[in-house]
Amino acid sequence: VRSFSSSSSNDHYRQSRGGVPRFFSQTLPSSKGGIVRVNGDEFWHMIKVLRLRINDRVELFNGKGDLVEGRIDNIDHAGVDFEALENLKSVSPHSIQCHVFAAFGSLKGGRADWLVEKCTELGASSLTPLLTERSHKIGENRIERLQRVVLASAKQCQRLHEMALKPPIGITKLLSVVGESRLSFVGVAEAAPLFHTLSSLKHDKHGVIIIGPEGDLSEEELKRVVEGGAIPCSLGPHRLRVETAAITLLSALMLWSDS
């Protein structure tokens, strides 16, 4: 692995293919020449981490499909002024909408972060913590931290539409979602294999993925979900962790829907 000094590393970062650094801003200039203020964590990352300077090129996005390239016009102790060098670009969301409901409230050791990161990279439209008998809570402060993981992951994978991290819901509210969806899947060890199930279904651009907690959904919870319209499917012969099962099912459905 080739090493770089601090200055040469930054130059390489800026000059590499697709290397214009991208930052989040709720407000974007609508046209060339417009200026917006960037502060907070994104300002800190620009100046203290990447050590960007006046006239360096950067991109701003708002997580809603809008992107604009520009330059750093001014830097002071509280923030930077960004000047747009082109008009605002808007990109439509991916045509495939997968919504993940996973009981990850009890995950420890960064496993929830990994789940959120990979759901963002793979293109999930939303991720909702599922509250069940065996995973009945998730802290509000944890949701706030995971929201920062979503943003960092969106920037890293060049995703313009931010994945929605939604408030936790229980089985009763989940049943309403399943009832409104044409395709809903729930991971079940004893069910038919996923690809066998998919081979008999028509493609759809919307889907719901349900993954229970460690120890799985209770018999009553699983019964309610399946009777509500979710299709049980097996993800292989081995017992999977919550995050592994969610990513496996999401990956398969995204590829299947896009084929």
Automatic annotation (TrEMBL):
Its EC number is 2.1.1.193. SUPFAM superfamilies: alpha/beta knot, PUA domain-like. Residues 97-254 form the Ribosomal RNA small subunit methyltransferase E methyltransferase domain. GO terms for molecular function: rRNA (uridine-N3-)-methyltransferase activity. It holds the Pfam family PUA_4. Residues 39-77 form the Ribosomal RNA small subunit methyltransferase E PUA-like domain. Coiled coil: none annotated. One of its GO terms (cellular component) is cytoplasm. Keywords: Cytoplasm, Methyltransferase, rRNA processing, S-adenosyl-L-methionine, Transferase. Belongs to the RNA methyltransferase RsmE family. NCBIfam families: RsmE family RNA methyltransferase. This is 16S rRNA (uracil(1498)-N(3))-methyltransferase.
